[in-house]
Each structure stands twice: as structure tokens, then as C-alpha cells.
Amino acid sequence: MNRIRVVIVEDDQDWLRGLISYLGKETDLDIVGQASSGQAAVELLERVEADVVLMDIMMSDSPEGIWAAAEIVQCTGARVIMLTSMEEKELIFEAFKVGAVDYMVKSNFTEIPQSIRNAYANRSSIHPSVAAKMREEFRRLKDLEHEVRVKELRDLLTPTEIQVLDLIEKGHTQTQIADKFVVSIRTIKVHVGNILRKLGGKSSKEAAQKAKDMGIL
């Protein structure tokens, strides 16, 4: 049976000793190295081959584990599991974004051996609670991105162009809009041309629908 080579990166020495003792009881796991900082971990992985790295996310009061995880994922074939005392959704998102394969809360240490095996076997080992937080964070970022995009488009449009779009969306023709504003049809066509250039679309109705769908109107 192949033994899984594990490196542990942890700056809490008491917790490190306890984890080494606990994992040492698993016959298929082999602790091949340990480090107490992100930089030391990166340097260690240059000398030692590991299958799985258990990476403390918070060291020296900063989330340097995320930086170290990114370096290790890019430069080695090791699978990185993040360890933490807190279920911080922003950190969870950042950890997975840099390539970590799992995120374990230290109080759930009894689940760590199986998480290591899953990571080694290239199976997804994301805990359901972590997956839920990931989905929540992705939704939040998607909503934020949408809000920023809407603001950018709204800032591009002049107040008159927004009024023209609103009337188009309500079914008014360009002639009716010109009469309402007491301007020439040519002026309205210029406004529509500017709107299409800014919002895109093949027609004024399509641009108006897009503006409505995005919440600009």
C-alpha cells in the first residue's frame, strides 16, 4: 500500500504536536515535513516531495497560508488542504481561488485523515457547509459585479438618453418621442445612436429591454 506523503504547515506548536500524534496512528499516512510559516513551507516543498499539504491559513496574525498555498499549487503537484480555527467565508473563497482542494476547521480534526485520502485520490472533499459558503460567496460576488456593471452603464448614459430609453421600452415610437420632447426626429435618432453605441444591441427596442433587464430603467 502506498503511503500518502503529508507536509503540515502550522505555527501553533502545541496543535502541531497533537496533529502529528493523531495522524501518526494512520497506517497509510507519512508525515514527511513540517513548517511554521508560509515562506518556510514554500522552501520546504522545494526539497521534499509531498502528496498533500495541510496548510494553516492564519500564521503570524495574517492569512499568509493563502499566499503559500498559491505558490505550492503552482510549483508542485501537491494537493493543499487549508486548516483554520474560523469559518470565514471570504478566506474560504480565497483559499479555493488559489487552488486549495479542501478547507478544514481545526475542531473537526477527526475528519482530516479522510480529507487527506480524498485529496490524494483527486476526489472533491469539500465539506457541505464549506460548499454552501462557497455558493453564497459566488452569488455575492456575482451580484456585486452586476451592480458595478449597472452603475458603469448608467453613468455612461445621459439623463435624456435614459428618458428616451424609458419611452422606447414603454412602446413609444421615435416620432412620438420627438413630439414629446419638442425636438426633431433627427435629434432622437442621434440619441438612439448614442444609446446603441453605449449599450449595444441591434435595435432601440433591444437596447431598452437590456436596460430594463439590468435595472437601469
Automatic annotation (TrEMBL):
Keywords: DNA-binding, Phosphoprotein, Transcription, Transcription regulation. Residues 5-121 form the Response regulatory domain. SUPFAM superfamilies: CheY-like. InterPro entries: CheY-like_superfamily, NreC/VraR/RcsB-like_REC, Sig_transdc_resp-reg_receiver, Tscrpt_reg_LuxR_C, WalR-like. This is Response regulator transcription factor. Residues 150-215 form the HTH luxR-type domain. SMART domains: HTH_LUXR (SM00421), REC (SM00448). Pfam families: GerE (PF00196), Response_reg (PF00072). The modification 4-aspartylphosphate is found at residue 56. It comes from Paenibacillus radicis.
